[in-house]
Amino acid sequence: MSSWAPLALTTLTAVLLALPVTPALYELWKRADATPLPTSRHDGRITNFAETFRSRLQPLLPQLERCRNQRDLLRTCIEGMEVLLVGRDGFDFDPSLTKGVAAVMLSEAPMIPAERLVEADVFTNCGLSLGERAALRAAWCGGDAALGKDSAVLRWLHADGSIFLSPGSSAYGRLSALHSIQLAPGCSFERMSAPQIVTVDRDQADGLLAARDAREACSSSDVSAMVTTSQPRLRIQGNFSLAPGETLSANVIATGHVHFGSGSRLLGSAKSYKDTVVDEAACVHGSIVSGGTIHLGQGCFAAGPLLAEEDVVIARGSRVGEPDALTTISSLGIQIAPGCQVHGTVWARVRGIVEA
Amino acid sequence: MLLHLFRLTLLLICVYTVRHYWFTLNRLFGRQRHPYIDLENAAWPAVTVLIAAHNEEAVISDILRALLEVDYPRERLTIIPVNDRSTDRTREIIDAFVVQHPFVEPFHRTGGKPGKAAALKDAMERVTSEIVLIFDADYIPGKALIRQLVAPFFDPEIGAVMGRVVPLNVGKKSLTRLLDLERSGGYQVDQQARMNLHLVPQYGGTVAGVRKSALDEIGGWNEDALAEDTDLTYRLLLAGWKTAYENRAECYEEVPERWPVRVRQIKRWAKGHNQAMARYLFGLAKCSGLSKLERIDGTLLLGVYLMGPVLLLGWLLAVVLFYNGAQIGGGLTVLALGAFTTLGNFAAFFEIAAAARLDGSRQRIRLLPLTLFGFTVSLISVSQAAWQQVQESIFGARQLVWHKTERSRTAPVLEDRLPVVLEESV
User: Fold this and answer.
1) Cβ–Cβ of A20/B212 closer than 8 Å?
2) pLDDT of B81-105, one tens digit each?
3) Does residue A15 fall inside a structural domain?
4) What is the Cα–Cα distance from B50 to B63, expressed in whole angstroms?
5) B424 vs A24: CB contact, 8 Å cut-off?
6) d(CA A250, CA A256)
7) Which CATH class is domain B33-257?
8) Are residues A308 and A343 in the same domain?
9) Residue B88: which of B65, B61, B119 has the closest Cα?
């Protein structure tokens, strides 16, 4: 018995020592997780989901055309995805017909009835309409898309034409259009991208006119070229304020607040550790980066990008970006008044709203 | 005297322990800052990409091919492979690309001072754009990487930007697997936490960018710097420029597959860091344009490679004092000693474990106990490097040479072998 004791003790000690490294040795032997970490290799475009969806369904277009000729419905499958092909007018997304399908392809412009929830992704080469309080998971449409009052898009919506959001409608996820996106008061959004994003009043024409005035007041075609080159740097410990009507050609960095007086003009970019406030009719021909909130007053112009670590608040008649120089607004929350224009991408990480 | 020295080493170790825990807990539970990540549309500026290459025939075509496919306005992109006195087929391969793609403008360097900084300094004379991105030749950039690295420069305060490095040859050797974990900890936790906390993210010299006007303002690349990246980080910081870290700007690299190569690499880093510490520590303490936290973090970052010898000294002193029957005494000292012998030693490993979790990798975390071996090798290597520097400061330094890290790749890799993430989360 005693002759085995040293051996038992040694074995026990070896086991206790080996125990913590056993999983490591097992992993070295089995190599269960020895591949490189996946890196993000997509191009980060807002339209990625829509483009992937369209390219997956593209092979079904001839079948859809046959359905249209026969004015028929057909269930089919592509890449393991159940698809309902609709070749006739007046399809009302009856849940009994769409049950179990991942996508619905339509040959005609669909109208989703009021208060209907469509859980399948929708593809149409024509336009698309959502009735009041209807909800749609995702859609790609070749024409214009119109969202009825209090309707919702739950994941993404892409239109090759324009997108119109009625009062109270909500766009969760992504909205993208090749032409424009128009948002009525009370709409909410998260991420949108279009050459022209317009928030309109109930009286739409007034809003567009106000935005056009801002452009005429501030835009200058040769200024945008200036900000891509290096500007003198102005570093301020504390707050910075540019007096009303003054023009400054520099990149401004302040560890406090930054304030641009009404009608002032910055030929360069601005960075504030705290809030940035741009008063009425002031222009910033460069980017605005803020550790707090960016407030754009009435009739302002900013070439962009606008990057805020808290919120961006844009007052009536302001404009961000230019039709031929698209830009980005990014922050946690974004609040835009009616009568504003943004050219490019608006990215609210938490929630964006159009003032009611 | 020895007791005071011991207490000092304990204090230093505790400070770094707290720092590791602070960073890790911030990454796990704190607010994350990615202020430039959403930039999709902008008036993208002209950019020059410099590829530092010294005898890179095995890898140069991979990076050139990858750069040709990037999503950046072609008319605003210039690629300059900086072929520094290569004696292999690097020149031939680059010239073959130039024939097909005229916007690749090679710079074949045949003389001048050795070293990456010197080569980059010469190459900068050809750069006309405001933004310069720098890659080592063994890196493989993704499609959106250039935009991701350029985006922070819309912030007028940003002088340099650093992306995340991800090892490609992970599965080759046990060493590469350990380095994969170490890199995860360094970037996923350390660098991003410094970004979150408005501290001092470090410019890393590759998968990185610098604003030309900022570089000109501080006098360009420092040819005498052993680690031009650390040197640049601190010179920019002292001149009021910030470095941004972009955790999602990921790029594959090749990590050393042999221990001697790894030892040489870490010795070079340690010497460069220590040199930067000697040069900039005093300036950092005096600089008025920095926040208190930036100064503290900047100082700790400079001293990070000195902790190897400090730890060894601490262990040695602990043994000596123990056998001399010294009274360590005092509640705080006992607490510090406890941290030193238990938590302190594991803080860095906690950081790695958190990084593996954040990366979503489940199995590789099993290797964590083995990182102790890599840690020991690093400890000895950086201590040796520090000792060599002490000797060199007394007896004079040898001539500066480019200690290029040996490449293990022998042929270009196929693009479709890389793991790809196509989907984004909404």
Assistant:
1) no
2) 998 888 888 888 898 888 888 888 9
3) no
4) 11
5) no
6) 17
7) alpha beta
8) yes
9) B61
Cα(B277)–Cα(A83) distance, integer angstroms: 64
- How many structural domains compose chain A? 2
Partner residues linked to B167 by β-bridges: B253
A296 and A157 housed in the same domain = no
Sign of CA pseudo-dihedral B274, B280, B282, B288: negative
A18 at interface of B, judged by CB pairs closer than 8 A: no
Which residue, among B367, B407, B380, has the nearest Cα to B185 in the 3D structure?
A: B367
Tell me which residue of B275, B308, B289 sits closest to B392, measured CA to CA: B275
**B162, containing H or E segment:** strand B158-167
Peptide bond into A338 cis (omega under 30): no
Domain span at A115: 49-178
Residues recorded for chain A = 356
Is B167 an interface residue toward A (CB < 8 Å)?
yes
A326 and A276 in a common domain? yes
Domain boundaries, chain B: 2-28+300-392, 33-257
Look at residue A177 and tell me whether its pLDDT is greater than 60: yes
Kindly list the residues from chain B whose CB atom is less than 8 angstroms away from the CB atom of residue A32: 363
Per the CB < 8 A criterion, the answer to whether A161 and A300 are in contact is no
- B161 contacts in chain A (CB < 8 Å): none
pLDDT at B228: 87
The predicted-structure confidence for A218-271, as pLDDT tens digits, reads as follows 555 444 444 445 678 999 999 999 999 999 999 999 999 999 999 999 999 999
- Mean of per-residue pLDDT scores for chain B: 86
* Separation CA A172–CA A195 (nearest Å): 20
Q: Average the pLDDT over A117-145 and give the result.
A: 92
> With pLDDT > 70 as the criterion, what percentage of chain B qualifies?
88
